[in-house]
TrEMBL record:
It comes from the Eukaryota. This is tRNA (guanine(26)-N(2))-dimethyltransferase. The keyword Methyltransferase applies. GO terms for biological process: tRNA N2-guanine methylation. One of its GO terms (cellular component) is nucleus.
Amino acid sequence: MLRVKVVNKPTSQNSCKGLKITAYSEPSVEAATELLPGETVVKEGKAAILFPSANEVFYNPVQEFNRDLTCAVITEFARELLVQRGVKLVVPGEEDRVVVSLGEEEVEEEKKEEEEEEEEEKNGADEPALTATVGEKCEKGLRVLEGLAASGLRSVRFALEVPGLQSITANDFSAKAAALIARNAMYNGVSHLIQASCKDASMLMYEMRGKKQRYDVIDLDPYGSPATFLDAAVQAVSDGGLLCVTCTDMAVMAGNSGETCYSKYGSVSIKSKYCHEMALRIILHSLDQRAGVYQRYIQPLLSISADFYIRVFVRVFTGQATVKNSASKQALNEIFCCYWTSSGTRLGGPLWAEAIHDLTFVQKVLSALSANPGRFGTSKRIEGVLSMVTEELEDVPFYYTLDSLSSSIRCNTPPMLQFRSALLHAGYKVSLSHACKNAIKTDAPPATMWDIMRCWEKIHPVKREKLSNTSPSFRILSKEPSLEACFTVREDANPQSRRRHLTRFQENPQAFWGPKARAKAGGGISDNLQDKRKKFQNKRKNQITESSELKKFPCKKFRKGTCTYGDQCSYSHDSVPTNEDKME
């Protein structure tokens, strides 16, 4: 059977001119279950995905953590939302009783039939609650859109692992990818839930902006920046629906190009040690700003920085009165280039200034995961990351890093527990951060942080005679601390996630585990990324080993007239031929 779909050209988002017809064949059951020459089967979670040997569709195995976490979050979101519709979720492997050890407290959850009956009474439901299981279509369930589905792996996993779904639209602009999605849906026996689509993701979401057409869950996991899809996404998600967004353009969001970041997200990024949390607050600000245009606002459920990307899960609501308060949820970020003076500041933002997690929701996800530890392949890492999230200070944006504090005064780095204990002895709150291994989140002012470092330097002195009088370290240490720090280790300085030796920061899973090569518009994979990296390594084939050889290269500062070394300069000051000389 030949299916023909009308696909909008990927021109401007507001343009409706010019349509092209993309055709792809929907395979028969026999064709879908038979491997084509050169094809391989990749298994992840409950799914088995067909992949062409030529890698014509993008796939990155390192993102399994991302997909596992998404399945866990959508499951709890569905459980919370569908109970209001009289639907009870049944997740394979879950026990009747859930016990999560969080140190001194134990959170116990039992299957609460009485609460479900109360919910039914509130909703006026006289009939017994419906039961939703994985792999079955639920008429009162969630409508899900995966905007950039590639092979359809994520959508297939939703169908096989998340109960309470009515339909899943797996979309990709590539006709080859759309055909592969249809094959994979049939290969896994979930074609009754998954509908393959071949459209521009933005245009598809714009078409579904109507209140009765909107999706309950929209998942966007693009290669690079999701900026071009955000405007359509905040309109196409239902009221109270879930929006899942991944950003892999971390160089832009972490401060390497503040101007580019502003053009994409409406926020200026600046280089800092807390760049990963800053990136999370940038994307949350961008989502809230775009939602506000349509009298909508966001409620972050979970915001994660992991590996080479960030991932946010937010609910989108409609409310004109609440939108008016959005301005008070944003803030500017000011960095002092010199900690010891008020000059030389850099200004970034605006950024999301409110909480980036809903700890009640995170606790539900964590409890369900602990009840069913064998559900995901990366369960241990998810448990470790979410445990750290629950320990983070909600009302403290950003963090310090111990190595940065120590390098500023040229002293050795204090142990984490001793530094945390010093802050606790001083009466301040302190926590770690899931975004950085040696991070310190605290409500202590900067002056207190430097006083603690001065006290540490007195115990472990640096060689003052080697410090320049104009150096930052000299000027910081020349001031006496206004408090006497106590570095005696306290028991509460060691968080529960650390005591339990949870997997919080995993080692690199494999060589070259970062972002893979971008998929081409026609469906193929671009040139090998490692070949490109090697191409730009060692640009000078004959590396310079002696300083005398530098005289062969012209001095750039001399060319500009700013070189002050004269004859002592290591580079050549010979006149550089102009364009006119070259023409002669």
